[in-house]
Amino acid sequence: MSGRRNFIKMALMGGAAVASQGLKARTLKATGFKGNSGSKPLVISTWNHGIPANAEAWKILSTGGKSIDAVEKGVMIPEGDPEVRSVGYGGYPDRDGHVTLDASIMDYNMDTGAVCFLEGIKHPINVARLVMDKTPHVMLSGEGALQFALEQGFKTENLLTEKSKKDWEEWKKKSDYKPVINIENHDTIGMLAIDEKGRVAGACTTSGASWKMHGRVGDSPIVGAGLFVDGEVGGATATGLGEAVIRTAGSAIVVELMRNGMSPFDACKEATHRIYKQHKGRPEFDYLQVGFIAINKHGEYGSYSLRKGFNYAVFDEKGGNRMEDAVYYYEE
Ligand code: SD4
After folding, report:
1. Is 1 exposed, middle or buried (0-12, 13-18, 19+ CB in 10 A)?
2. Whose CA is nearest to atom 3 of ligand 1?
């Protein structure tokens, strides 16, 4: 077990900078599993809802199917689950009470599709897939995305469940936009898979930050931010505060670091450290959480997060479908 735990000192954190945000400087503890090596097929995905999502993806991967189909089918599970409050049906609305959805999908060969600010469609990932397969574009937004979905035969439905509506009405009493870490800005599902043939693909889908401004788009549908795949290297996906991931081109950076020789774990760690350096002292640092997961083309995976509490699901033949805690950087 000790090999799974990694304690690091944080040399970067100046006491003054931290004190100015009301946080105590301290030695940082980083615990969690650092990932493993080399199994195909393999699927990993963010948070606890990654378990049923992985199980669905595994049906395709374990029968010789393509990773792009596995990730699309996999993430549909949390999209359709009303208990998952930050993805698809049942997701928290924006501050005006609209559930607006972002999703992206990317294959090993640079094929990619995304939708953002989409309302009324339960499975935005299916629309993203069709943007990829059937249009000359990469991303459709808002009304245009909806129009395309309707043309493709999708039906609109009310995605705001009674539960989420109640929570929104409660939130409106104070209308304070300060997402609760690991609760109000998590639950995006990001999934990465490598199939038997070694093709890497990824998908990412979310209702975004709870109580966001109407029209806000996060990192999840933005290729290079919330998701990036390059079949020559591997793939990465992010969860957490999308603004921070967009600013830092998070997933593209993780893939680029792997291209330059880093393991998935080290690449996720380096990208997270950069986000820390670039955000300490900013007002949103107090509620900043970011987590990355990554796999490379050899079937090695890894993960890292800024703060405690991020976990992810891994499914391979040897270990089955299980949760692992991410190693994290910063502790108050
Ligand atoms: C966003 N990154 O829209 C998403 C939210 C998220 O886990 O990941 N939640 O900012």
Report:
1. exposed
2. 208
> Which residue type sits at 42?
L
Instruction: Judge whether 290 and 244 are in contact, CB under 8 Å.
Output: yes
CATH value at residue 119: 3.60.20.30
Map 14-63 to HEC letters: CHHHHHCCCCCCCCCCCCCCCCCCCCCCEEEEECCCHHHHHHHHHHHHCC
Decide: 242 in ligand 1 pocket, CB within 6 A.
yes
Structural domain containing residue 184: 36-330
Closest residue by Cα to atom 2, ligand 1, is 242
In a domain, 10, yes or no: no
Euclidean distance between CA atoms 22 and 127, whole angstroms: 44
Q: Which of 229, 251, 234 is nearest to 242 (CA)?
A: 251
Residue nearest to atom 5 of ligand 1 (CA): 208
307, part of any domain = yes
Q: What is the pLDDT of residue 287?
A: 87
CA distance 160 to 278: 35
Q: Is pTM, for the whole model, over 0.85?
A: yes
**So what's the pLDDT on residue 123?**
97
* Ligand 1 pocket: which of 85, 185, 246 to mutate (most atoms within 8 A of CB): 185
- Cα separation, 31 vs 48, in Å, equals 18
pLDDT-above-70 percentage for the chain: 86
Domain membership of residue 31 (yes or no) is: no
Number of domains in the chain: 1
182 CB under 6 A from ligand 1? no
Probe target for ligand 1 pocket from 220, 289, 292, 303, with the most ligand atoms within 8 Å of CB: 220
| 67 in contact with ligand 1, CB cutoff 6 A | no
Tens digits of residue pLDDT in 172-192: 888 777 666 655 445 789 999
